[in-house]
């Protein structure tokens, strides 16, 4: 899964999303349209990003669906990603991509989208340095904790049992997995170093879901 990041005030609008070519992409686009129109958390995050002064343009252009083949080098491993402004691009075009084959239903799609939009919010709010292991870890901790991917029901579906502090343990594990996928050295230690502060930060929400 790619590192993720949001929009910069001076960033150009994302390029128009390509027309869906496969059945999986068409299904993904239907899920996207429904989430952008009706999901309260998704709409709230877009509103909060706008309040911070970051213009993402049309949400329907900002969030695109792509097949594994059209999702970049990590398309076979990630469900979603946010285009990172790492300073290497001449023109940075922020946006979220969801890998169509890996988001087969409403629940998976919407959790993935919220995860990536938390990254977008953080980039807008804090101008995250994605080259910094600590910044990257904090972003993954917040996205994993606020997206719903660590709900108890999700952990049970993964075969992980245990009620005691399950949410925090899940967030630690999934944040470290994201860092490892991005090629970070010592992902668990990097997450542990910033965990308490970043886990406690639930902005723009009042609490963990």
UniProtKB/TrEMBL annotation:
Entry GO terms, CC: mitochondrion
GO BP annotations, alphabetical order: mitochondrial protein processing; mitochondrial proton-transporting ATP synthase complex assembly
Superkingdom in the source lineage: Eukaryota
Family: Belongs to the peptidase M76 family.
Organism: Pelagomonas calceolata
Ranges where the record places region Disordered: 1-25
Protein name as it appears in the record: Mitochondrial inner membrane protease ATP23
Keywords annotated in UniProt: Hydrolase, Metal-binding, Metalloprotease, Protease
Signal peptide: none
Enzyme Commission numbers on file: 3.4.24.-
InterPro entries assigned to the protein according to its UniProt record, in alphabetical order: Peptidase_M76_ATP23 (IPR019165)
Pfam families membership: Peptidase_M76 (PF09768)
GO molecular function annotations of the record: metal ion binding; metalloendopeptidase activity
Residue stretches of biased makeup (Low complexity): 1-12
